[in-house]
């Protein structure tokens, strides 16, 4: 066979020289890896398109997954202050609990006093007070002698009595005769024969009426007994209608209530301090005692050393 015939390609479907596979089979074998690679690339492209379709894009061109991550980050940022506040409260819980355990009772007493004063200032009935003054003059000395001072104190005790008020020409408010001690108070000085008559009521006019009626009654009563006592009672000033209530007084009431609470808190602190001291001393004493049932060891014998 010539060299030209040897290099000639075998015919289709015929086996190649040397017993090899046919030419078509060899071509199929060579094309199979290329087809597999093509199908793999096509599958990847289809999966990418499918993933892009599921993810989608927002109107501003950002993927929906990125927008969801942004929302989650915003929620975490919004929750960060609450978490920080919770952490701060967690750190302060232990010292705050210890502080309230030690001073809670004292704070409660002071707060109770403050609230008591505030409650009285808010809910106590309004009271008006008017004041009149009368003077006792000694006729014998022509002035303010010892007798005038003594009779001034006696007349001061008689002023709120219904029997003395019966001398008054100024009418009392309706139904007040049976409770004159609740509406009329008198006070005297140990050095001067001056009598202070205070009338109190729920209206300004009634308060002034009580004070003026008591002063007028005392002047008339003293004049009627002038020959027996040797002194006379003179009116110094009539009571004016008050323009503002005398009670309640919110600043004063709150201050008194708070001061009472502080006083109770101080007493409570003293009692608790003494109790803690006794408990501490008892604990030290118990710690220094040997346990029950313990047998003391033998005492060490002195050892003599001879030089």
Automatic annotation (TrEMBL):
Residues 98-141 form the Polysaccharide chain length determinant N-terminal domain. It is a multi-pass membrane protein. InterPro entries: Bact_polysacc_biosynth/exp, LPS_length_determ_N. It is found in: Cell membrane. Residues 64-75 have a biased composition (Basic residues). Pfam families: Wzz. Keywords: Cell membrane, Membrane, Transmembrane, Transmembrane helix. The chain crosses the membrane at residues 103-123, 254-272. Residues 290-307 have a biased composition (Low complexity). Residues 31-49 have a biased composition (Basic and acidic residues). Residues 1-80, 274-307 are annotated as: Disordered. PANTHER family: CAPSULAR EXOPOLYSACCHARIDE FAMILY, TYROSINE-PROTEIN KINASE. Belongs to the CpsC/CapA family. This is Polysaccharide chain length determinant N-terminal domain-containing protein.
